[in-house]
Amino acid sequence: MCNMKKFIYSLAIAAAFMTSSCINDLDTLPLNETDKTAETSYQTLSGLEEGLAYVYGSFCLVSQNTPGSSDLAMDDAGQSELMRQYVMLNEMSVDALKCIWGDSYIVDLQNNSWSSTPNSSTIAVYTRGMMAITRANEFLIQSKDKDFQGVAQLRAEARFLRALAYYFMMDLFGNPPFALEENINGELPGQIGRANLFNWIENELKSIINGTDGEQLADKGAVDYPRADKGAATALLARMYLNAEVYTGTARWQDARDAAKAVIDMGYRLCSNYEDLFLQDNGENEDARNEMIYAVAYDRDNTQSWGGTTHFVSATLSDAAAVDIAANLGFPAGSLIARERWNGYHVPSIYVERNFELTGVDWNAKSGFGYDREHSDKRAMLYNIGGTEAYDKADVNTGWRCWKWTSRDSKGNLYSSGEYSLFSSADFAIFRLAEMYLIYAEAQARMDGGTTTDATAINYVKALRDRAGLETPSYIDLDFILKERGAELMWEGHRRTDLIRYGYFNSSKFPWPYKGGVPDGKTSLPSFRTIYPLLQSDLNENPNLVQNEGY
Which end of the chain, C or N, has fewer beta carbons within 10 A? Predict the structure, then answer.
C-alpha cells in the first residue's frame, strides 16, 4: 500500500457522512457527477486500498475538505476529532489533565457533571466511533467476493479497525449500538450488552490473528507502518483482558499476561530515549517505531488536524514557557518549543506527586524546570516556573505545564517559527511495548495476590525505570504499577480506565481537583459515571436503543 499518511488525506470516496444518524450515511448521493461512489470506487485493488485508507482516516480526520471544517455540526473542527476527544474523555475526567478554558465539554469533564445532553467530547467520540464502524462495514460489503490478490488481508485490517472502534465504544459508552454489514441500508441496530460486545470483539480479533476464516492480519513488519498487523490486534486483546472484570464481571488476568507476552515476543523493542516517542518524526525514527505497536498517523502536510497531536503541542504552554523550555533544552535564545501556544492544558500537582519521582521541586524557582530534572524521572516533561501549586480552574498560571509533545524532532530541528506549518507530524501511539510490559506486570501481581517478585514482571518494569533513570525495587505491588502507568502513559488515553479498574474512580479516598465539582475533590462519584451516556439524538432516531442507567 502506498504512503498511508498521504493516502488517508487525499481521498474522494462516497459521501461526507454528515447526517446525524451513523448507520445509513452511505445512502448519501454524490454532490456532482465527478464524485466517486462506493459502487465505482471499489472495483480495483487500488480502489480497495483507498477505501481502506478512508477507514483508517476515521480516527484522525475531521472532514474530506480542510482541517478547519468539520463534517459534524460543531463550531470547532479540532474539537470534533476522534483521538483528541478520546483522550479528553479518559484524561480530563480524572486527575491527569485539566484546562482553564470555559468550553462546556471542559466544564462537564472537569466537574464530572456530564449528562444525557451531549457535549463536544461525547459527540465527537460517539459519532466518529460509529462512523469508523459504518465505514468498515461498507468496506467489507464492497470488498466481499473480490478476488484481487491481498484482499483478504485488507479485509482483516478493516475488521481490526472496526474492532478497535468498538473497543473505544465499549470502554466509554458501555452498551453502544451494535451494527454489522447487514445494518447498511437495513434495519437499525440494537444493543447486545457490554459483556456480549466484549466477547464479539475478542472472537473477531482472534479470527483475524489466526486466519480461521481465511482473512488474516500480516505478521509484525510485513506491512508498512502505520498499517495494523497481528501485533496491534494482540495488543488490543491484552488491554481488553486486563479490564475484563470491569467489562464482563469475570477477571482474565492469565489471558492478559499471556496476550501481553505474545506481543512482547514478536520482537518489539523499547525506544532508547523516551522523549523520542513523542517528537515530530516519531513515525520516521526507527528507534521510536520499534516500540510503537500501532499508531494513528499525523502529518503536517497530508493528515492535518487541530486535534491529534497538534492540540497536545499547542494547548499546554504560554509564550514565556515555550521560550524558557526551549532555552533549557539548549535551543537558541528566543526559540519557541511549540509553534502555537494556546495556554490551557495543565497537570494538577496531585497527579505529579502520585506518579513521578521528582527531586528538588521548587514552586518559587525563577529558572530551570522548577525541579531537578537531571536527578528525576526522565518521563516527567514538566515545568512550573511562574505557576502556583494548587490548581485553580480559573487561573492560567496554575499547576504544572507539560511539554511531552513539542515542535522538536529527534535530530534537533525545531519547527516553531513562522515558516513552519501550525500542524503536528507526531503520530499518536495507541499501543506501544511499554504498555505490554505493564500489563504483564499487573496481571502477574494480581495473580500473585497483589504483590509479586516474579523475575519476568520485575525485569519488564525495570526496563522502563532504567530508561527513566530510576532504581527498581525487589518486589512490586499494584499501587506501584499504577504509579508506573501514570508516569509512563500520561496523557495517552489510559487514566480513566485504569482508575476504574483499580476502584479509585468513584472513591472519595482518591481525590483530584474538582472531582464531582468539589474544589478539593474529596468526594465520591456515583457508579453510573464509569460510563458515558449514549447520544440522545441516536436514541430519538433509533427505537431499538436504551440509554445507559443514570442518564
Answer: C
